[in-house]
Amino acid sequence: MTVAAGIGYVLIALGPSLSIFVSVISKKPFLILTVLSSTLLWLMSLIALSGIWRGFLPLKTTSWWPYAILILSSIAFQEALRLLFWKIYKRLEDTLDAFADRVAKPHLFLTDKMLISLAGGLGHGVAHAVFFCISLLTPAFGPATYFVDQCSKVPFFLLSALIALAFVTIHTFSMVIAFNGYAEGNKVDKYLVPIVHVIAGVLTLINLAPGGCTVGIPLLYVVAILTLIHCGRMVWRRLLTENRISLNHS
Amino acid sequence: MAQRQTPSTQTPTLLDSLGEEIVRIVAPVSICMFLVVILVSVLNSGDSSFSVSSIATIAYTETTSDSSWDKFVGALLNSLAFVVVVTVATFLLVLLFYFRCTGFLKIYMGFSAFVILGFLGGEVLIFLIQHFSTPIDCFTFLLLLCNFAVVGVMAVFMSKMPILVTQSYLVVIGILVAYWFTMLPEWTTWAMLVAMALYDLAAVLLPIGPLRLLVELAISRNEEIPALVYEARPVNVENLDPRVAVARRRLWRDRRATENSNLRGDANVNVDNALGLGANAELNHGSDSNRNDPSLAGEGAVLDSNLSSSTSYGTYSDRNLVRAEEGRVQETDSEVTTPLIGHGVNVRMHSRPEDADASDENLMLEGIGLGSSGAIKLGLGDFIFYSVLVGRAAMYDFMTVYACYLAIIAGLGITLMLLALYQKALPALPVSVALGVLFYFLTRLLLEVFVVQCSMNLLMF
């Protein structure tokens, strides 16, 4: 629908992540590299999933359960990947601390570790947005637009941009929650993240029903906002306890 | 009342400066790829009826009506011809360098830069003017183009220009050549990319490889190879005392010798070397008089305002230099300032596309390496071939573009890590091109169907 609309869709999906990138991540080169590597990891997981599912596609059924299996298996795979990411990050953290000792710099602070997990989450979110939304936007830069049957009131591109925005939020902040949960050994946080991911994925199944997107997308945003609030509260709590500890020591 | 300060505002932590050198190389590569993709998608919206004849199509001209097997064999022949020409040109270059004809080489470099900027740039600009129907008259156009080309030649070969101008012109040269290469037929492009990656591997690692000979010649003579190379942070060598510049190069060789002879049983050390990419040995300008003076680091820090965050690295590198000059290199500090030594492919290039006859293609590129100033260098040929890969992916769809971009950046990162690990000449093309081609075909065959199927039903995860 013209270049302006195309750019608009891109900014809807990626606007907040762009602002996070410019304000927080671009200042520290290591975080840029973290974003790139987590984006690559997500892409590789997506390619692996598509390799596994290639034989069954295109699914020509109108029932919902093949899609449910698709989504559940994909989410299980990606959560396993998140665990792997955490293990790699632990090893990296030890190496970085040892390196910091050698160059007589302080060890990684809590804020540094949270920034790294934020960058990792942002990488996942941006990868989702890019591959599920932006890469399909090429026709949107032209003169026409496209509607899907299940949701025939709103252009398809706008729908996918909105869903992508919700998922970017979910991915970014659930990575912070997850890393914090693994670091503290907090069971609630550790299990909350996969559950949130599954709920979000299953909510998109509602979009299969005609007119379902009017229900599915707002619910998805509710989940995203809940993730955001939980992450904010958790970070606030940790920073307060950390500062209280450091004040007591000094 | 106790003041609460967040730790990150107090002292600069490791996160502030680690990986800076890598980002300084990844950024211009990304910009080059991005602009080539934009050019390709804007100008190639129709079918490319403009076929380019050059060395790369000397053996076979691909037409859409040929069978797949014909296209495959034709592409192989084309790429073989291209590699043969490139090999011959590189050996010629080695010969000229051996006979110390550096003046001739420099003039040739300048001439090819002028031709690329003037003729190729002019052609791309004409395409753009045609596409957007910009009103401009030919005299203005010629004047602007001529100025642009002349300033470009001066920027590339004189070190008195601002760094940003030199770097921008190098990126522009890369963009123009890459765009021209994407106009080759499809199968030929892919075959050529793979062939060039294999050639790069052979030419740098084999003992008879021309590039290896060239690099060893240059190091043994303590000279720089005249080449189109993108340096992440070039230093103005004329301001320095010549003795310092020479001493630095000698240090580079000595350090390589001492480090190679030292046993490295500790696996951590190698990883630390890889992480030590953030440091650079640049802060050693200053007078030759009192090298032991710690205030030298401060002087160096003032001289280069870019390095505000890495002044601490500068102190270490300076002390390291002092000790190396005296012949004792300490192991502990050398991890911070590990020089990455690697000069890769060296092939020379210039092209005249408006000529209907097959034009000579000699590409002067150098793989990843460390300049004598300590900043990471990447040959322009690597820029060009990465952008050709991504440009070709753009001709199919944007999903392949994103996948190939990530693959190439990953390959670049892996190559830099390997460089820090192996401490010898490494080619920059093979890993990135292999990953890029792999991801292109995987995306095209597997990922696209999956993602389109999910997205059309508004199912996402």
Tags for this model:
heterodimer, A: 250 residues, mainly alpha, B: 461 residues, three-stranded antiparallel sheet, 3 strands, 63% helix
Shape of chain B: globular
Strand count, sense and barrel status of the largest sheet of chain A are: none
| Number of helical stretches of at least 4 residues of chain A | 7
| Helix-strand category of chain B | mainly alpha
Strand content of chain B: under 5%
Total of helices of chain B: 17
What global shape of chain A is seen? globular
Radius of gyration of chain A: 20 Å
Order of helices and strands of chain A: HHHHHHH
Residues in helices of chain A, as a percent range: over 70%
Order of helices and strands of chain B: HHHHHHHHHEHHHHHEEHHH
- What is the end-to-end distance of chain A? 60 Å
Strand proportion of chain A: under 5%
Please report the distance between the alpha carbons of the first and last residues of chain B: 49 Å
Structural class of chain A: mainly alpha
The total count of strands of chain A amounts to 0
